[in-house]
Amino acid sequence: MTVDLEVPPIAVLAVAVLATSTSAILVRWSAAPSSVAAFYRILFTTALVTPVAVGRYRAAFARLSRRDFMGAIGAGTALAVHFAAWFESLNHTSVAASVTLVQSQPIFVAVGAWLLLGERIGRKTAAGIVVAILGAAVMSLGDTETTLLSDATLYGNALALLGAVTVAGYVLAGRSIRQRVSLFPYVAVVYGVCAVMLMLVVVAQGHAFVGYPTREWLLFLGLAVGPGIVGHTVSNWVIERLESVVVSVAWLGEPVGATALAFVLLAEVPDPVTVVGGLAVVAGVAVATLERG
Predict the structure, then answer these.
(1) pLDDT given at position 150
(2) Can you give the pLDDT at residue 144?
(3) The pLDDT value given to residue 5
(4) CB atoms closer than 10 angstroms to residue 260
(5) Closest CA to 239 of 169, 173, 290, 285
(6) Is the pLDDT of residue 81 over 90?
(7) Is the per-residue pLDDT at 100 higher than 80?
(8) Cα distance between residue 184 and residue 179, in whole Å
(9) The pTM is what?
(10) How many CB atoms lie within 10 A of CB 266?
(11) Per-domain residue ranges of the chain
(12) Per-residue pLDDT, 95
């Protein structure tokens, strides 16, 4: 973007996390295979951002270096692997195990930011990361009678962990490239690559691309506008202005927002353990982000 918003980046990030929190509700309402929903979410998001990127940022595209272009391709591939691995993990392990492991991504972002980007991690930020991850683990275990170890399989756990590592790579790539590349050219390449990769996943799984009712197409569009544009795209604006660790930890607020929306829209009442975990996530996110925002 060429014009800075007159609001703190932390406030913008909060809006992006809230928008991303709607993803679980929209997916719950959808009857389509999860990989199909993920594909159309990214495809429609790409269709929305590409005209702006080409129309208003054509010169920025021309200035895109080979290094940054390849980096954006890598980020898009990482995002696609994240979606594919995380969704597939749910077919092989418990929801509790999958969510707990995929939400370990701030650990990989923190280590990667320290090793690759030279971002220092202070004591308060580290403490916030630990508290938020523990809270996320408590939340994901709150509504299940099984435990992480007794119900999970090695394969499913490995896929969920792969989802955490790859989304960390996506965040780190964005933090590096967005220092030099405008928002819309960057996300157009990332989302385009991600859509192609997810299309291959849908083909490999043998799912249909068409034949869904109008309601499903509206849900796909909702996933693109809410979690896609307002969630991920706005997060890519913020990541130019805040450390990658701050953005990554803030994303841990997504399950809290999703739980609140499920209470209002789906009449799903969280149990006391889930509430306690959610409060811990909010506290951890606050400690890790407010000091540095």
Answers:
(1) 44
(2) 52
(3) 46
(4) 14
(5) 173
(6) yes
(7) no
(8) 13
(9) 0.73
(10) 12
(11) 9-290
(12) 55
> What is the distance between the alpha carbons of residues 180 and 163, in angstroms, rounded to a whole number?
27
Condensed to tens digits (0 to 9), the pLDDT of residues 111-133 reads 787 777 677 777 877 787 788 77
Helix/strand/coil (H/E/C) assignment for every residue in the chain: CCCCCCCCHHHHHHHHHHHHHHHHHHHHHCCCCHHHHHHHHHHHHHHHHHHHHHHHCHHHHHHCCHHHHHHHHHHHHHHHHHHHHHHHHCCCCCHHHHHHHHCCHHHHHHHHHHHHHCCCCCHHHHHHHHHHHHHHHHHHHHCCCCCHHHHCCHHHHHHHHHHHHHHHHHHHHHHHHCCCCCHHHHHHHHHHHHHHHHHHHHHHHCCCCCCCCHHHHHHHHHHHHHHHHHHHHHHHHHCCCCCHHHHHHHHHHHHHHHHHHHHHHCCCCCCHHHHHHHHHHHHHHHHHHHCCC
CA distance 126 to 95: 26
Tell me which residue of 131, 165, 156 sits closest to 252, measured CA to CA. 131
Exposed, middle or buried by CB within 10 Å (0-12, 13-18, 19+), for 6?
exposed
Q: What percent of the chain has pLDDT over 90?
A: 19
d(CA 73, CA 70) in angstroms, rounded, equals 5
CA 43 distance to own-chain centroid:
16
What amino acid is encoded at 42 in this protein? I
pLDDT band at 94 (very low <50, low <70, confident <90, very high): low
What pLDDT shows up at residue 152? 47
Cα–Cα distance for residue pair 173/181, rounded to 1 Å: 12
> What residue has token string 């896609």?
228
C-alpha distances in angstroms, 188 versus 69, 200, 222, 262? 11, 19, 18, 31
Question: Which amino acid is located at 87 in the chain?
Answer: F
**Res 18 pLDDT > 50:** yes
